[in-house]
């Protein structure tokens, strides 16, 4: 029992109210009594009580109205109903309205005492649950963003500060530093968290496709556009739109983006109807936009529009103290995913991981840890389980090429295949596989990505690198 609990007692029978109030005060409860619905509402406006005890008949007023008002103003306040006219239907109606319990007059002291104690305890549990929910909300979106570095801790503070603002946020950092995760964390901690989070990799799409992707298109906008299609801005309405690699936007696209970021209005490709959107826009780049502005490659007015809040993510090589923290995290995740019992890396392997420069940053570290867990030969991982670029060692393994040309060999020390780099040698078959899959799925990129078991952003980048353009993306004459 909470001896400091506050109770609002509402009953039009003044004698009964005074008697009950005196009895409860002797039990060290704080009691305030009123006799009408209006007086009860006035009291609830001034104070949030732990418990409301009310009769269902308040003269000409209805106690159900008071229950509804209380639950609207103070959802966590417990409500105890007392009445001399209880029926099964009345009890059900009271519980549905939000009452914790219903007692019938004349009241029995022990029954009333137990009901009050249970109602106050329910309020306490509700408050504890709300505190826990708020604590979880404060961590929402940040579960996998780990750092002890003071610069990253400042980033976390900025995320909290700007989460609920509508102002644009520009995230700057090298590839693999976690720009997408930061954008998702801002969204998850904002009042828009229940709305959509829509991500677009601007650099992975040609200009014509990017315009259709962002703003949508109407039927007939270009060859193959057989129906209207909503754009990412439409899809992000009520939520957050994340535009990655914004520095790759062409001058023409920059003009269109400037307008929508100023007015939050746009027209779909090939259409005249203006769409309005309510979306928070977060942008990211791995380039120096100030230099791009100086050179004229990026519009100055657009830069000022998007650079309201700039979050700069330091590369992993500048925060070596985070390496072991991240290694432990990725190791646990990878081991659970693979179903392996891994104790960790030995001292020599940890030293190698800490000494490496990590050009691919956190993403590269995650991939290398996952690789070690998959290929490791024992519960303790060693430098032998790390790739040569991390350890500084070279591999002497030589693989025979297909039997059709047995003289061809791949020497991993020099990374050459008949005078070509491994990447160059693999481009032709990779291009053919992707092209066949695109054709078989009628150039549906989502279906193609699913069939190839890669995400759409990766597919877009591969299409761009390999020169695979959608033949339908020709404007209708």
UniProtKB/TrEMBL annotation:
Keywords recorded for this protein, A-Z: Activator, ATP-binding, DNA-binding, Nucleotide-binding, Phosphoprotein, Transcription, Transcription regulation
Segments passing through the bilayer: none
The Sigma-54 factor interaction domain is annotated at 145-374
> Which residues are reported to carry the modification 4-aspartylphosphate?
55
Classification via InterPro entries = AAA+_ATPase (IPR003593), AAA_lid_NorR (IPR058031), CheY-like_superfamily (IPR011006), Homeodomain-like_sf (IPR009057), HTH_Fis (IPR002197), P-loop_NTPase (IPR027417), Sig_transdc_resp-reg_receiver (IPR001789), Sigma_54_int (IPR002078)
Which Pfam family, any one, appears in the UniProt record? Sigma54_activat
What's a GO biological-process term for it?
Answer: regulation of DNA-templated transcription
GO MF annotations in UniProt: ATP binding; sequence-specific DNA binding
| SMART domains xref list | AAA (SM00382), REC (SM00448)
Organism domain of life: Bacteria
Q: Where is the Response regulatory domain?
A: 6-120
UniProt-recorded name of the protein: Protein containing RNA polymerase sigma factor 54, interaction
Record organism: Rhodopirellula maiorica SM1
């Amino acid at each position: 029992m909470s001896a400091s609990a506050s109770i609002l007692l509402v009953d039009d029978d003044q004698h009964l109210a005074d008697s009950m109030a005196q009895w409860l005060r002797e039990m060290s409860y704080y009691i305030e009594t009123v006799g009408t619905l209006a007086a009860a509402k006035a009291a609830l406006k001034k104070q949030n009580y732990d418990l409301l005890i009310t009769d269902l008949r308040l003269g000409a007023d209805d106690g159900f109205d008071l229950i509804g008002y209380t639950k609207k103003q103070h959802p966590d306040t417990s409500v105890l109903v007392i009445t001399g006219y209880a029926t099964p239907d009345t009890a059900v109606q009271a519980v549905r309205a939000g009452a914790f319990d219903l007692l019938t007059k004349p009241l029995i002291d022990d029954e009333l005492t137990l009901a009050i104690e249970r109602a106050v305890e329910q309020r306490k549990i509700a408050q504890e649950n709300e505190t826990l929910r708020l604590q979880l909300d404060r961590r929402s979106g940040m579960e996998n963003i780990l750092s002890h570095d003071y610069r990253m801790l400042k980033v976390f503070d900025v995320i909290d500060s700007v989460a609920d603002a509508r102002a644009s946020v520009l995230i700057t950092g090298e590839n693999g530093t976690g720009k997408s995760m930061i954008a998702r964390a801002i969204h998850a901690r904002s009042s828009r968290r229940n709305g959509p989070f829509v991500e677009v990799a601007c650099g992975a799409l040609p200009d014509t496709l990017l315009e259709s992707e962002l703003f949508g298109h109407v039927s007939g906008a270009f060859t193959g556009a057989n129906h209207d299609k909503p754009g990412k801005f439409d899809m992000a309405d009520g939520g957050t739109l994340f535009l990655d690699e914004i520095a790759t936007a062409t001058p023409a696209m920059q003009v269109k983006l400037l307008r929508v970021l100023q007015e939050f209005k746009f027209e779909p490709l090939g259409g005249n109807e203006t769409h309005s959107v309510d979306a928070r826009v977060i942008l990211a780049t791995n380039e120096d936009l100030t230099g791009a502005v100086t050179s004229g490659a990026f519009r100055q007015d657009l830069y000022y529009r998007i650079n309201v809040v700039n979050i700069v993510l330091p590369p992993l090589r500048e925060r070596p103290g985070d390496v072991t923290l991240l290694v432990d995290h990725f190791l646990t995740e990878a081991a659970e995913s693979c179903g392996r019992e891994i104790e960790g890396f030995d001292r020599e392997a940890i030293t190698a991981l800490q000494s490496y420069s990590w050009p691919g940053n956190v993403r590269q570290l995650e991939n290398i840890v996952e690789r070690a867990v998959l290929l490791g030969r024992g519960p303790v991982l060693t430098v032998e389980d790390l790739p040569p670029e991390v350890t500084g060692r070279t591999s002497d393994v030589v693989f025979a090429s297909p039997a059709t040309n047995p003289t061809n060999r791949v020497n991993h020390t020099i990374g050459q295949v008949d005078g070509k780099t491994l990447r160059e040698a693999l481009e032709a078959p990779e291009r053919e596989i992707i092209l066949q899959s695109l054709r078989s799925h009628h150039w549906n990129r989502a279906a193609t990505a699913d069939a190839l078991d890669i995400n759409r952003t990766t597919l877009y980048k591969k299409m761009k690198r390999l020169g695979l353009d959608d033949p339908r993306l020709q404007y209708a004459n």
